[in-house]
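Running this now, will post back.
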Amino acid sequence: MLRGQVGAGSRSRNAYCVLRNDLTDYGLRITPVADSPNVGLWVFDPDPNPNPVLKAPSMPDHTTYQSPFTWRYGSEAMRAIFSEIHRRKLWRRVWVALARAQARAGLITPEQLADIEAHAEDIDLARAWAIEREVRHDVMAEIRTFAEQCPVGGGVIHLGATSMDIVDNADVLRQREALDLILERLQALIGHLADLVERYADTPVMGYTHIQPAEPTTLGYRLAQTLQDLLMDWEELSRVRRELKGKGMKGAVGTLASYNQLLAGTGISAGELERMVLEDLGLDAFPVTTQTYPRKQDWQVLNALAGLAQTLHRFAFDLRILQSPPFGELSEPFGQHQVGSSAMPFKRNPITAEKIDSLARYVATLPQTAWSNAALNLLERTLDDSANRRVIIPNAFLAADELLLASTRIIADLNIWPDAIARNLAAYGVFAATERVLMEAARAGGDRQHLHEIIRGHSLTAWAAVQQGEPNPLPDLLASDPELTRWLAPDRIRALLDASDYVGEAPQRARALAAAAWETCGRAG
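Update: finished.
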């Protein structure tokens, strides 16, 4: 059982609900430590029968194509953020903010504003899509749908605006919500991983370079590599979230000309109107834009998500290697009724780690499209970014959402196999510990280069014996070589060949990083 924390307040209550609902789908029970979830403490309790496939409360229509992100990958919470209903509610939120500012400027009446506000939640997709089939413009179709619902205020909706004044600001509001959810999930993952790093800071394991035995490290220090990368992802995602900006209300080519014309004689400037709208929305805006906000921002957002995917890809790939029976040191959770193969009943395939790597590779490809959108957004605007942005931005967030949920499931119930760790350390640690013999013999007065060659020769002989299934003869070979015993006693050589404590500062550094993670993201109870 692992514990975690989110900060107090309404966001924490929302995060608790999201984590509770989504992680239940991942075979984890989540319960508050205190009487109320707004305290911010919660417990992950691994379900004995985890199901790695997300359950949807209502299945989509599978008689037509459905994206796997519609029902299989990502959470209901993230899907809700990128739903068409929510998108149009955000559009209407911008229209309402614009109407409020225009009412303050005397451009629309209080009655018109009240009518617009009263119908802001009344999304009618069927009507909007019927209009769109005729006009072939989704924003104009929504304007007409909204206007039909507002007999008093309908005629002034979208006054002075261009479509991207609405869409771009709504898109940033939606990305902000999605980043908040990603950061909540990342906070939980960092907390649980820091717990493992701290718990296993002193546990020696065989280290591998080139996927070959190298020198010992500790399990906590190995996991700390992923924790360190996740903290870098936390900083970058937090920075991107903090610096998100909307377009503001700047009109067809970003000059505010339409608003200047509209506001003439009111005593309120276009800039003041824009500030009122942005304050209502809780947004900052770029000081200069074209018809859209700079598409470079999309690239930055997707780059940050791809960076997170990169970290989780490496973690999952390492886990796949270490779950392989020749290593056998770690393994992902495997449910009591889980099936590994339709043909081979004995299989325990690392399907969750493989899914993480698969989706992470996909996320890694998306910034290239965002790069092209920014680089090819010619003059004051072209529309060739529009269609792919409908796909790449939601999919990037949904894939990242799935990556974090799947990784949390693994970390929360990671299988650690001490016997395999000890076996590998015994089999290969003696080779790694020859460095200790080399350094101590050289410090005693021996020629480092000559001693290196002596130890290398014995090591190759010992490797050949081990590969033939024989006991490792290296301790005997080194302890009986006069070139070494000239500088070190045989008993000292044998003692130095115990690699279990040859881990340097790994334990201390692992614990220090875990402490830094707690400081950054909050400590579990």
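The longest strand covers residues 212-218. More later if anyone needs it.
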